[in-house]
Amino acid sequence: MSKGSYDFGLVGLGVMGRNFILNVTDNGFSAFGLDTDPEKVAALKQEGEGKPVDGTIDKKAFIENLSAPRKIMLLVPAGGPVDAVIEDLLPLLDEGDLIIDGGNSFFTDTDRRGDYLNEKGIYFIGSGVSGGAKGARFGPSIMPGGDQKAYELVKPIFEAVSAKVNGEPCVDYMGTKSAGNYVKMVHNGIEYGLMQLISEAYTVLKTGLGLSNEQLHETFTKWNQGKLKSFLVEITSEIFTKMDDKTGKHLVDLILDKAKQKGTGKWTSQNAMDLGIPVPTIDVSVSMREISALKDDRVAAEKLYESPAIPSVGLTVEDVEDALYFAFIITYAQGMTQLVAASKEYGYGCNLEVISKIWRGGCIIRAGLLEEMRKAFSKNNDLSSLLLDEGFASELNANAGAMRRVVGYSVAGGIPASGLSASLSYFDSYRSGRLPLNLIQAQRDHFGSHTYERVDMEGIFHTEW
């Protein structure tokens, strides 16, 4: 192809970047890549042989090969590397060119970069991309936010490369400023919660009910064919069949129980607190990863404390399925409520129906439940919580009994189930017209003269206790 004729540029040719750029070329667009590592450039050329794709380590050649206005996506680590690439490319760009940050950048960084580039006449989009390497190659869910005019420049490419559900692309404009990165952050927070809940269901089934790995595979496979149908349940079923090629044992049993994290779950939890929005299932999922890191302490503590006997009766596999479904709804509801609050606080203008729609395919938290969420927000896009939707209220009522049995069983048997417990506690608190926080207000007034309100008359009051 001739100079200046490539439709799309991508910086960062690691696994995600290489897969994404090849996806672009598979869908009718030409693309040019840039990386500082010659081996990654060579890998792109080799894998893209015969396709309208090329790459270089020369930033000037990279810019010269892109058609105007240039559309350049960055798939580099969040933080300093994003700023460094922007500064590197900026002198070579023209007014009206577009930079897209496709990484998991913190939303305030996106706002800062958008303001900075806008002053220089360069468009900027912060865009969440979910689906992992396979999604990048064959169809991710994409969450772009920023100037809507900027999104229109890349909309045909993003719609072509995204996952499709019923022929609908799993990409749409999320809102102004950093809306795209914020939506992706909450997506990841929900992901943390769902993964924690699945791990707790696994330990109840394995430690409590004594299911073998083969039975666990069968159970999760069956669940994925019903109301728990989702990407995370699907891959969980597959994990139980994987054998270790070194020992011949089930690989899942040989993996160290220390879960790592990249920070997006923590960001979700921290910002929810800033907004005054409770997301306890997400909070505890972050805490459990931190507790898991205390491996030496946990092994030592295990020797100090007695473990209660596992209850011999009173729970079924179906109970665990219903409880997990209940907790899934609660976790999605917490994340969606946070998005409602953030959209108002930051002026994003998010559409919750649209977000539910594009999460139905391509992304890690895709699940059958999301179509029901889309319908709920279609009926009322101002819905403050999914728990106030009659359809979801019916589902929660139908499964609450199983949830209480599973949590009670776990407590009695000393099985850690903090995510399930937090989900149930959130539900019980949310559905309570009166909470015992009147006592807390009395305490605050007693020790600090912080005042209180009354249920029987208007005004602010203080008592000399």
Would you give an account of this structure?
By secondary structure, the protein is α/β, with parallel strands linked by helices. The chain folds into 3 domains: 8-173, Rossmann fold, CATH 3.40.50.720; 184-430, N-(1-d-carboxylethyl)-l-norvaline Dehydrogenase, domain 2, CATH 1.10.1040.10; 436-465, Single alpha-helices involved in coiled-coils or other helix-helix interfaces (Up-down Bundle), CATH 1.20.5.320. 54% of the residues lie in helices and 8% in strands. The strands form 2 sheets. Strands 3-2-1-4-5-6-7 form a 7-stranded mixed sheet, sandwiched between helices. A two-stranded antiparallel ribbon has the order 8-9. α1 runs parallel beside α6 (132-138) and α1 packs across α7. The protein is globular, with a radius of gyration of 25 Å. The N and C termini lie far apart (82 Å). The mean pLDDT is 95.
**General form:** globular
Q: Major sheet, described briefly?
A: 7 strands, mixed
Give me the count of strands: 9
| CATH class call of the largest domain | Mainly Alpha
Please provide a brief summary of the model.
The chain has 465 residues and is an alpha/beta fold.
Lay out the secondary structure.
Blueprint: E1 8-11, H1 15-26, E2 31-34, H2 38-47, E3 53-56, H3 59-64, E4 71-74, H4 80-89, E5 98-101, H5 107-119, E6 123-130, H6 132-138, E7 141-146, H7 148-161, E8 164-165, E9 168-169, H8 179-208, H9 213-223, H10 231-239, H11 264-275, H12 280-292, H13 295-302, H14 317-346, H15 352-358, H16 369-379, H17 390-413, H18 418-430, H19 437-448
Parallel strand pairs: 1-2, 1-4, 2-3, 4-5, 5-6
Antiparallel strand pairs: 6-7, 8-9
